[in-house]
Structure formats: structure tokens, C-alpha cells
Specification:
Layout: H1 3-14, H2 24-34, E1 40-43, E2 49-53, E3 60-66, E4 71-77, E5 83-88, E6 100-104, E7 110-116, H3 125-128, E8 138-140, H4 146-151, E9 159-162, E10 167-169, E11 173-176, H5 179-197, E12 204-210, H6 218-227, E13 231-239, E14 260-262, H7 272-285, E15 290-292, H8 301-306, E16 314-322, E17 329-332, H9 333-348, H10 352-355, E18 363-366, E19 371-375, E20 381-385, H11 420-430, H12 435-441, H13 446-462
Parallel strand pairs: 3-12, 3-13, 13-16, 14-15
Antiparallel strand pairs: 1-2, 2-12, 4-5, 4-9, 6-7, 6-9, 7-8, 10-11, 11-17, 14-16, 16-17, 18-19, 19-20
Helix pairs in contact: 1-5, 5-9, 7-9, 11-13, 12-13
Length: 463
């Protein structure tokens, strides 16, 4: 992967302003980049950009990176023309004073301003020791009155960011704003380019460029509900703290050490199978990687995706960057390259047989007759508990389908006869059919078929 291509992509993606819920400029750039690479592309009601790359399997791998960045909205305009700001996302107020901000006017114009505060010369000695509070800060755009601010096209709710230009540093490193998570977006664009050039992937890859991650992972939650993934990864930019004054036990990641795999964060306890599969893929491909140190701080879209519908096995692959949620972040290009390498290996070798579906509910209710069916030791529903089946009323049981849920043409709501369909799966498997062939031939969800066959194979091995 040539550096000039990556540098050009990062410039394109870190230039647009896209605070939470107002990612239009970023989404337009991404749309132009990924439309030629996807089999299907759409924008949903919350502004998520969803691109589908169809694979040989109906198994759906969701890859998510968020478009939005931490920023502000104008919260008040006083009579002298000074602006007050409300934060969107997590900010440390100590780092905000004296920075150059850009406010986006109604017509899209960029209006520069400076974050002002009380000069230290006139501060009370006690006040000089106190940390800055965001509500005490203001923005000076050069206006002399509220009317002049209105003439600039600035109003309550206008978005604003601390904005500086993209800079190339020595040592194959760059500095830019909004690396969290435009670097993740760049990684997924580069991955789609590789998938487009490398033929049909083994699984269907659904890439979600998410809206509004910085204010509660709202876009990912909605996207996961409609995508219904079998497996998901959030591709994030995470804090690298390998800097003076921070001891190693407090450094979540180190820059230059490769992509970071999350075990635990504030929003997620990562699926151990996903973490193991990612680590194995990286090791087999010779991709250097690290583990993000477990922490109660920080969260990712994977936390929202994991809780979608009946649950999704989820993990996080992160690109380390210094000084995130600040005016400038710093990124090592090698970490970005290696992240794309890991993602490509994972997609090409997606461990369909290694993860399996979420476990089935052990007891389900037959609402047609009031009976309960208890799962047998092998996992298929066994004898009825109650009176409906014993009475021989012939009512077909309606247990919840194993795995998570079907998709398309009402498969998730169609009643299944435990034993009958499972026996068919086993018969076809004994005839030499693969799990994918069985799923297609019986019009059944891949994860359901896989669960039945996996248990069947385990019982056979035990005997």
C-alpha cells in the first residue's frame, strides 16, 4: 500500500467537518469513495452510510467506523457578538482556550474564531489556580453585535470545531484533527478497495460508516438492527499514551506497535472467541498487534452492536493515535497499514466454523398450546413439559429458533418443528453437504444450521 494514497485519503477524510448528527460533508466524501466498490449502498434515517460487498456465504460480517468527531454547537450569542459553546462528545476544557475554531454558517461558509478567556493579568490569584470551565469560555469571531453574528449566518445550533490543517510529520507520522475516527473510515475504504480487487470474499461484508458515535453510539445501534450481523467489528481510533509522564500500566496502547485488540472497555466485554480469532489471524499473517489495556474509560460502537436484537458476537480493532479528543491527533502510518492487513486476513479467513452462533434458549414456550419445551443436552428441543403434546392435540410447537434470528421472507417468524428440521440438517450433512449448502438448500439461516451441525459433530466425536 503506497503512502501517498493513504496520505491523500486521510487528507480527504479529515478535512470535512462532521460533528455528531451533522456528518453530511464526511458522508458525501465517503459515498464518492465507496460507491464504485460496493454491490449495494444506502443511507438510513440517522445518516449512517451502509455499503454491502456480497460474498459467497450469506454470513454477514459487519465492519463499523464512525464518521463523526468531537466538536461543539453554538449555545448562546450575546449582545456583543461573542458565542458560547456546548460540547458534542468528550472534551477536556483545560485544552480549549486560545485555540482557533471554525464555525459552519447556514450556507456552509467557514467562519473563523478564537476561543477567548479572561487574561491572566487580571485574574484573581485564586482564580488562576482553578481549571477552566467550558461555560466560562467564549468565541470571538470578530463581530461587534448579535446582529453581525446573524449576518454571518451563525445561529444557535451552528456546528463548530477546533480546526487546523493536515500535517505530515517526520517518521511516517501525521497530525490531523478528527483522526478519531476518520482513520477507521480510511481503513475500511482501503479494505473495500482490496476486496474489490481480490474477488468475491467468502462472507458478505457490510460496512457501516456510522453517525453520532461520540454522543452515545446512536448510529451503530440503528445500523446493527437493520443489518442483523452474524459477527461484528468496530474499527476505531484509540488512545496511545506512550508519552512522557504516563507509566506503562496506564498506557492503553502504544503508537507504532500495530492494531490494538480490545478485551474490555466501558461499553463492551468483547466476545472472547472474536478476540482469539483476530489474534490468530494476525499471528498467522505476521501482522504485529497489541492488546488495548482493559479500562473503564472509553467506549466504541461495538458496545451498541453487541446488544442489538438477540445479541451479536463483537470485537474491536483499533488504530492507536496520540492526543485524541484534542485539537490535533498524531497517527503512525504503519499502524494504519497493519490494521488494513489484519482486517483483510480476517475477512478472507472469516472463522465461520470457529465461532458458531450464540447459544439457544434452553426453555421455550409453545404458545400454540401452552406447553414448554426443554432443550435436550445436545441443544435441540426435547420432550414437552406440560399438557399440549401429551394430549396429542397435534398443535405444532413454536420454539424460538436456535441462534439469533432468521432474516428475509419471514424465516425468523416461521415455526420450526424441533427434531424434524434438525434431523434433515443431519441427514444432508451425512450425505456430504456443507453447512452453507444445507442452509441454501433448506432456506434456513446459516447460524441455525451451523449450530445444529456443530452439536451433532460434537456428539459423534464423544461416541
Amino acid at each position: 500500500m503506497e503512502d501517498h494514497r493513504v496520505l491523500d485519503l486521510l487528507r480527504k477524510l479529515t478535512g470535512p467537518i462532521g460533528v455528531p448528527g451533522m456528518e453530511d460533508e464526511v458522508r458525501q466524501v465517503l459515498l464518492e469513495l465507496v460507491e464504485p466498490l460496493a454491490d449495494q449502498i444506502r443511507v438510513d434515517a440517522l445518516g449512517n452510510l451502509i455499503a454491502v460487498r456480497r460474498g459467497r456465504s450469506p454470513f454477514r460480517l459487519m465492519l463499523d467506523a464512525h464518521m463523526d468527531e468531537v466538536g461543539f454547537v453554538v449555545s448562546y450569542i450575546d449582545d456583543q457578538g461573542f458565542l458560547r459553546l456546548a460540547p458534542l462528545g468528550g472534551w477536556d476544557a483545560r485544552i480549549i482556550p486560545s485555540h482557533l475554531v471554525t464555525v459552519v454558517a447556514d450556507d456552509g461558509r467557514r467562519v473563523p474564531g478564537v476561543v477567548g478567556s479572561t487574561p491572566p493579568h487580571i485574574l484573581d490569584p485564586e482564580d488562576s489556580k482553578k481549571p477552566h470551565r467550558l461555560e466560562d469560555l467564549f468565541v470571538d469571531v470578530g463581530a461587534r453585535s448579535a446582529a453581525e453574528v446573524a449576518a454571518l449566518g451563525i445561529r444557535i445550533g451552528s456546528p463548530a470545531v477546533i480546526a487546523y490543517p493536515f500535517v505530515e510529520l517526520d517518521g511516517r507520522r501525521v497530525a490531523a484533527r478528527a483522526l478519531d475516527d476518520r482513520a477507521g473510515c480510511a481503513a475500511l475504504v482501503l479494505l473495500l478497495e482490496r476486496l474489490a480487487a481480490g474477488g468475491e470474499p467468502p462472507v458478505t461484508v457490510v460496512v457501516n460508516f456510522a453517525a453520532a458515535e461520540e454522543v452515545g453510539m446512536r448510529g451503530a445501534q440503528v445500523a446493527a438492527y437493520q443489518i442483523e450481523p452474524d459477527l461484528a467489528l468496530a474499527v476505531e481510533t484509540t488512545a496511545a499514551a506512550d508519552v512522557p509522564g504516563v507509566p506503562p500500566p496506564r498506557q492503553p496502547t502504544r503508537m507504532g506497535a500495530g492494531p490494538a485488540l480490545t478485551v474490555v472497555d466501558r461499553s463492551l466485554v468483547a466476545d472472547r472467541r472474536v478476540v482469539a480469532a483476530l489474534a490468530a489471524a494476525a499471528s498467522e499473517a505476521g501482522v504485529p498487534f497489541q492488546y488495548r489495556l482493559p479500562s473503564a474509560a472509553g467506549g466504541t460502537d461495538a458496545g451498541a452492536i453487541q446488544r442489538s436484537r438477540a445479541g451479536v458476537p463483537a470485537g474491536v480493532v483499533s488504530i492507536p493515535a496520540r492526543y485524541i479528543h484534542a485539537p490535533y491527533g498524531v497517527l503512525d502510518l504503519d499502524d494504519l497499514h497493519r490494521t488494513v492487513d489484519l482486517l483483510e486476513v480476517f475477512v478472507r479467513q472469516c472463522p465461520l466454523e470457529g465461532l458458531g452462533p450464540a447459544p439457544a434458549m434452553p426453555v421455550v414456550e409453545d404458545r400454540s398450546g401452552g406447553a414448554l419445551r426443554r432443550a435436550a443436552p445436545g441443544g435441540d428441543a426435547g420432550a414437552a413439559v406440560g399438557t399440549a403434546e401429551a394430549a396429542g392435540d397435534g398443535a405444532p410447537p413454536r420454539p424460538q429458533q436456535a441462534g439469533r434470528r432468521g432474516r428475509g421472507r419471514g424465516r425468523g417468524s416461521r415455526p420450526l418443528r424441533p427434531g424434524t428440521k434438525s434431523d434433515l440438517f443431519r441427514q444432508l450433512y451425512d450425505q456430504g453437504k456443507s453447512v452453507l449448502e444445507i442452509a441454501r438448500e433448506t432456506n434456513s439461516p446459516y447460524s441455525f444450521v451451523y449450530g445444529v451441525i456443530r452439536r451433532y459433530r460434537a456428539r459423534r466425536e464423544q461416541t
